[in-house]
Every structure is written in C-alpha cells, then in structure tokens.
Amino acid sequence: MTAAIDSASSKDLERLYTIEKKCFKEEAFTKEQILQMLDDYNTVSLIARVKEEIAGFVIGMIYVERNTLHGHILTIDVDRPFGRKGIGTQLMKEIEGIFRRKGVKFLHLEVREDNKAAISLYIKLGYVTIGKLNNYYGRVHGIYLRKSLA
Description:
4 helices, alpha+beta, 7 strands
C-alpha cells in the first residue's frame, strides 16, 4: 500500500493524538506535547494519507551535538488498520531523506524491547543497537538505536 506523504500541521492534531493514544496507550504523548512538537522549528513532522485518511505519522527533531547535526525520531505511529502495509517504512524513508538533505549525519530513536515488529523494521532500515535503556517505558526496557545518514 502506498500512502501520500505530506507535512503535518496543527490542523491534524486531533487525528494524530487519536493514533498516538491507540499506538502507545499510557506511554502516549499528550495532545499538548504533540502540538508543541508540530510547532517546533527544529522538528520535521510528516503524515501518511491513504484515500484522504491519515494512516500514520512521524515526528523527528534536529539538534546539534559536537558540531554535528543529529536527528531524533520522537514518535512514529501507524493506525492499526493500516499496519504491516509498508506505511511505517515509507514514513521512515521520507523523514530520513529530509534529514539527509538538511545535513543530518546520524539518526537516533528508542523502541520498547518487546516491540518486535518495530525493531525488525528499524534493523531492516539499517539501524544498529547502541544500548539498552533500563525501565525506559515504565517497567519495560527500551533499546537505543542509531543509523548513519552520511
């Protein structure tokens, strides 16, 4: 399934928040946090549309560390009916391309260690495990991943 990828904006907030809550439940960002990310100058926010419906989204932030531009995927969400159809891959490849064009050298993200589908996607996309994040998601550990975009 191919989705149309567009920039996200505050007008998409209600749908993004609904998807975020479905995907992450108690670990979901609040509506206010999502709005703040959408409005932040240093973020890239994309939505995937399938037949005019927002099927998923990704938000990443650009920051400088040791005089090098880095990217951090803050959240990537695909609504359940659209899962396992390549939309997450499409969103990740699109945001990676944008970050690459902006000069970002490394991209980072965190994932629950029990989220096997997401881990599989990230490994397939070339991310490598940097470390374990003890109790990062409450009682569930996280995994810290990185990919070189250089």
